[in-house]
Amino acid sequence: MPVYRDEAVVLRTHKLGEADRIVTLLTRRHGKVRAVAKGVRRTGSKFGARLEPFMVADLQLYEGRTLDVITQAESLGSYGAEITQDYAAYTAANAMVEAADKLTEAEGSLQQYLLLVGALRSLARAEHGASLTLDSYLLRALALAGWAPSFQDCARCGRTGEHTAVVVQLGGVVCDDDAPPGTPRIAGSTVALLGSLLAGDWAHAEAAASVDRNQASGIVAAYTQWHLERGLRSLPHVTRETTTT
After folding, report:
1. Which of helix, strand or coil describes residue 30?
2. Distances (CA, A) of 12 to 26, 32, 80, 141, 222
3. From the CA atom positions of the chain, what is the Rg in Å?
4. Which helix (H) or strand (E) holds 12?
5. Which residues of the chain have pLDDT under 70?
């Protein structure tokens, strides 16, 4: 059977039999892959710890009829231990890998892979707040999937201006003429924060006030749920940090 190598992020795992595990992976070149890791639940397993959720590894696999089989695993990013020690990071990481699982299929997506690896690395290193990191990841992952939100021009007609009406079904902010009756309004500072999260402008995002962070998180969650239809089961469990500004 054909043997291949690839880098991969572990999205989730399931027990199989007494000692094996089914591992769902987002790979660098082969998209989403489901593979069997034989014997990894035994105490003497050589690479069991390298195949836990949030870990990044260089893998050797061979193609099976229904599931591929992992034969080698070398660690590239040991992010699991650091992430699981912090509850906010852990809940954010769970939402990230669930989103990646739903947004990717068999075809490869290098951009989605690199985005997820970067987000998990940032969580493990506590480079930014976990909630901000998650919201930025979700917006950028959805944009890569073809659902880029607009937080500057009207999402419906393209009119420029400082729009404060948000309609997630239309793709972001809309002008007053295109806003349906009763459309909720948000502060301009919240719109600016959403734009910063999408662009990766961390200096502005980290300076945002709690009220803007909370409002932005709600909009990101609603936008994610709209495009993923059933939403993310992990999202309600995410811990949202607060600021004093």
Report:
1. coil
2. 10, 11, 12, 18, 24
3. 20
4. strand 3-16
5. 1, 43-44, 106-108, 241-245
